[in-house]
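Hi C.,

You asked whether I'd gotten around to modeling the 235-residue construct. I have! Everything is below, sequence then structure, no commentary in between.
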Amino acid sequence: MITKQIILSQLQKSLIENANVNAMWLEGSDGTGSADEYSYLDIVLDVVDGFETDIFELLEKTLLEMAPLDLNAEESHQPLLKNKVYHLQGTPDSLFLDVTLQSESRGFKFTRENESEVPDVIFDKKAIIQYQSLDQNKLHQQLIKRLISLENTIKQKARAEKYIARGKFIEAIGYYQKFVLEPLIELLRIKYKPINHDYYIVSISKHLPKEVYVQLEGLFKNSSLEDLKEYRDSV
């Protein structure tokens, strides 16, 4: 059976010899030491500018030597940052390979205080992985802007309430998510885990106090118009 370690070993062998791959590391649960049998591989490669497509092709060739791909999807394509998600046929359903290629000129640095973003280094040929201290003033300014935006979003909760009153469940639950739950989650993160305020539900069970998480969980259990009416009547 193809395991995480087999995949990593084969990728390391293939990529470390390539002069256009500067570094390879894992993030997510492998970086924080919290991986379990359901965890996927969150792989990051630092690549010489202009060779991103070539490295994706090399990576895919290496994967195909192990097994066919039943998932090969480009998730995002930003300047200096590209992301694809793969899955090898015959491996556990949850064993996705979330691969990010960052161009060398991005010059990214990890923030020491951010315990949710920790690199598990596979190799680093050019001392690419660097750290910096949190810019408290910059974060403060970001949070002020977000609080204003979140306030304006929550003020529109009537978009959900009118569909509750109309008895239209799909519209009601959709707008309830957008104008109540999503801004509430970020507000709670700003209070308890400001450095990760934009993580939405990622690791939220770890980032919020248990009693707060349990209360929030209750709001996600609104699964009928009757439940939503109780929410509406309580605010």
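If it helps when you're writing up: The chain has nine helices and eight strands.

Thanks,
B.
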